[in-house]
Amino acid sequence: MKTTSTILMLLLCMGCAQTTTPPQESTTTQTETAPATTPSTRSSDPEMDKFIDDLMAKMTLEEKIGQLNLVSVGFDVTGPVVSENVDENIRKGNVGGVFNTFTPIAVRKLQDMAMNNTRLKIPLIFGYDVIHGHRTIFPIPLGLASSWDLNAIERSARIAAEEATADGLNWVFSPMVDIARDPRWGRISEGAGEDPWLGSRVGEAMVRGYQGEDMKANNTVMACVKHFALYGAAEAGRDYNTVDMSLQRMYNEYLPPYKAAIDAGAGSVMSSFNEINGVPATGNKWLMTDLLRKQWGFDGFVVTDYTAINEMIPHGVGNEAEVAALALKAGVDMDMVGELFLKELGPMVKSGKVTEEEINTACRRVLEAKYKLGLFQDPYRYINDERAKSTMMKKEYVDASRDIARRSMVLLKNEKNALPLKQSGSIALIGPLARNQRDLIGNWSGAGDWKKAVSVEQGIRNVVGNKVKINYAKGANLTDDAQMIRRLNAHGGDLELDKRSSEAMIREAVQVARKSDVIVAVVGESQGMTGEAASRADITLPGQQLALLKALKATGKPLVIVLMNGRPLALAWEHENANAILETWFAGTEAGNAIADVLYGNYNPSGKLTVTFPVEVGQVPIYYNAKNTGRPYGGDELDKYKSRYMDVPNEPLYPFGYGLSYTTFSYSKPQLSATTLQGTQPLEVRVDVRNTGNYDGEEVVQLYVQDVVGSITRPVKELKGFQKIALKKGESKTVTFRISADDLKFYNNELQYVNEPGEYRVYVGTNSRDVQAASFRLQ
Ligand code: BGC
């Protein structure tokens, strides 16, 4: 039951005037409320505090404000393109950090400007969007997560840090931990998918990989958790759009990955573009101070997203001066590109609208980051030409990229063992992505060289040599929309419109198919159709690709679809008609080799979806950890008054956690060590998994929990554990999970983190749908 004070508090929190949630009294067991301490200017490192106290005592107000300014400096192959203004600003001490510049030569040039010209010689920090690899490119983050292999994910971040630091960088704008349930949103490709628990584990692994044990080491970088917060919940999947969300949903379903990455020690956080319940995130004091710093104890610094302060003007919350003050007072420390801090804060201190103390707080946090990175000891510690030469794209890194690319691929269908392919005979290799290189490395791969990416055609040749005859036809353009191609190419794409009619292209492909044993159709999206500002309302295959597939199917030859895309696509026809479908995302530098490894059985696929694939876009948002309704649909067609669509099923095409293998696995019923869980003694859930097929393989054994009756409604299932195990043909293993009372906690209506006594169900299985259940009670 909600108390009156609770309702009042909720109303307050959900309006513009968001306040810290006061801890409430609880009638439930094992309550935890976050300490509401005031963030202090003292850290746990007295030496650092003393160093920064001394430095700040010498700084003028202008110099302090300068530290809050982050500039983007373009880059070309011969060195940095430094605009007059940036050059002059760095020399004047008006710049705290630079991003979009790398290579030792370019970074040294800029660092020299700060070290040789500014009064206090405060080094610059160098950031970049290192998102899924730096020079050696790994699968896009949604693909990385689909490996369910936290060691491999951490290793990808480690390698990215090795290469980025060898390029002079010390700060990466990653991990992106935004939970996303809407495949229309192009940036769903940049995160780990829809699940808060898995997203948390992936975020932690990436922070560990980037920051290592010691941020001062010359091969570690500072991570930046983004986009704080709730950016993935943009209405209608349209980028930058409004977010309006209950606090319960926020705390239980969207915030956990940010918190996990921060608890893992991430040194910085990036504010998001969106508003949250009426207040833009970048000017949201509740978010940036009350939640982030007071409740979660974050002691790093907050940078805005690109011009996010300025964007509060069209959001409608103030003019330039007002939005700059809003951001600073909210708890933002660094202004990315917008330069409103630089322009507005000085005059506002004079007019008394902002205090120098507020600027000191932000400045201290930026300086602390530089200190933690060891830049005051040696501003050039990340700049080393020798290391740059010996580090980039080392064989070991490229091999790791191939391995994780294979692990990230998800086998969506494999009728009558259409895959793996025989290493003999002929294939019709068809599709706009079959010879493609540019798209394979995805977007946010600015330092990656797509010309080094291995195409599918090349990968097949590498893996099977001359044993298989390849008959190629393009078959279709990725899109026939010339306008769209212009737009994509203006932002790093490399699309060429084949001028032949789509009928002629399809005709050629059909001829090629007819003379081959099997069709391998490599279709999907161009990388620029996903990522930032790349929302799509229609999530089917773009252009004439579906028409191509239909014509290929009509030849009667076995049809294997290799998909490349950065979001769940609506694939009803493909699922119905293809013999096999392999989801490969944008798999990175080694994409072609990795795909060929899977197609020809050198690697048995083991990836699982971390996001639900709908049958149709009209089902969106669709996600596995949903709530029940009071009228759940039970399958009776004539039972009208149920929660269902008249024209499409409620069920997705592929559920969360889904993915096939070339072998099969059987699961025993889960056995519980007890039927009640009490105190601190964890409950053990054991399940025997057997490899019942003809290949050695890996399986992601998944554990879900349902809190059957709660003080608020609870999801029908929530992932609480998984283990990725390898089983030889015929082998079986007992997998043991431990559930503790802590794993059952959630935020109740008073936003207390509690577990509640009562009945719980445990589900274990190969995906979120195909599970077996057992029950226990929490006492
Ligand atoms: C994106 C961020 C990115 C930043 C810097 C923004 O447009 O939203 O994810 O880190 O640019 O490039």
From TrEMBL:
<dbReference type="InterPro" id="IPR036881">
    <property type="entry name" value="Glyco_hydro_3_C_sf"/>
</dbReference>
<keyword id="KW-0378">Hydrolase</keyword>
<dbReference type="InterPro" id="IPR013783">
    <property type="entry name" value="Ig-like_fold"/>
</dbReference>
<feature type="region of interest" description="Disordered">
    <location>
        <begin position="20"/>
        <end position="48"/>
    </location>
</feature>
<dbReference type="InterPro" id="IPR026891">
    <property type="entry name" value="Fn3-like"/>
</dbReference>
<keyword id="KW-0732">Signal</keyword>
<comment type="similarity">
    <text>Belongs to the glycosyl hydrolase 3 family.</text>
</comment>
<feature type="domain" description="Fibronectin type III-like">
    <location>
        <begin position="699"/>
        <end position="768"/>
    </location>
</feature>
<feature type="signal peptide">
    <location>
        <begin position="1"/>
        <end position="19"/>
    </location>
</feature>
<dbReference type="InterPro" id="IPR001764">
    <property type="entry name" value="Glyco_hydro_3_N"/>
</dbReference>
<dbReference type="InterPro" id="IPR017853">
    <property type="entry name" value="GH"/>
</dbReference>
<dbReference type="InterPro" id="IPR002772">
    <property type="entry name" value="Glyco_hydro_3_C"/>
</dbReference>
<keyword id="KW-0326">Glycosidase</keyword>
<protein>
    <recommendedName>
        <fullName>beta-glucosidase</fullName>
        <ecNumber>3.2.1.21</ecNumber>
    </recommendedName>
</protein>
<dbReference type="InterPro" id="IPR019800">
    <property type="entry name" value="Glyco_hydro_3_AS"/>
</dbReference>
<dbReference type="Pfam" id="PF00933">
    <property type="entry name" value="Glyco_hydro_3"/>
</dbReference>
<dbReference type="InterPro" id="IPR036962">
    <property type="entry name" value="Glyco_hydro_3_N_sf"/>
</dbReference>
<dbReference type="InterPro" id="IPR051915">
    <property type="entry name" value="Cellulose_Degrad_GH3"/>
</dbReference>
<dbReference type="Pfam" id="PF14310">
    <property type="entry name" value="Fn3-like"/>
</dbReference>
<dbReference type="GO" id="GO:0008422">
    <property type="term" value="F:beta-glucosidase activity"/>
</dbReference>
<dbReference type="Pfam" id="PF01915">
    <property type="entry name" value="Glyco_hydro_3_C"/>
</dbReference>
<feature type="compositionally biased region" description="Low complexity">
    <location>
        <begin position="20"/>
        <end position="41"/>
    </location>
</feature>
